[in-house]
Amino acid sequence: MDNVSRSDHWHLLEREDSCLVVIDVQTIFLDKLPLDWRAPLVECIDWLMRVARVLDIPIMATAENIARVGPLVPELAALLPTASPPVFNKMVFGLYGQQDTREAIEASGRGTFVLVGCETDVCVAQSAIGLRVAGYRVCAVENACGSPPPNHEAGIQRMRDAGIIVTSLKSVYFEWVRDVETHHRVMAELNASPPAGVTL
């Protein structure tokens, strides 16, 4: 894939070109976060996965070293489309550095990857930068990623410095839906309020 120009920062996300990537949302990583961050982070990721399903945006999920660390949290695993592969057992920090995850990225046919999950400064950042170097457009959702402070903030800054689009759950949602009619359709199909702290 040709390298993406830095001017891609100025283009809105296109749902037809997007893939949502859920990275390593496992209990061991959630337990590192401040207590009041844990449930809201999972709720934000859960909601964005539901939006992606309504909009037919593919979802890819990873979990790090499942045998030792444990699976993706069940509430998110339950939202993965039945037609998708199982959760990828990721044995590297940057997902583009592993053959099966790299092949899944390439086979998706998508050019934009929207990243959420744990940990912001390690697996999310390394995955984002690896995808960016490979020529993909990459977006990290700041309020749907987590690392214990101050590492979350450091990871966000590292990604910004590398040319990754850093944005919010609300912004991703409205760039994906684009118009009032689609917004109302998605909200009706979701039949669920946005996550706490997110006002649409």
From TrEMBL:
**Pfam families in the record:** Isochorismatase
The segment(s) forming the Isochorismatase-like domain are 18-169
Give the protein name, as stated in the record. Answer: Isochorismatase-like domain-containing protein
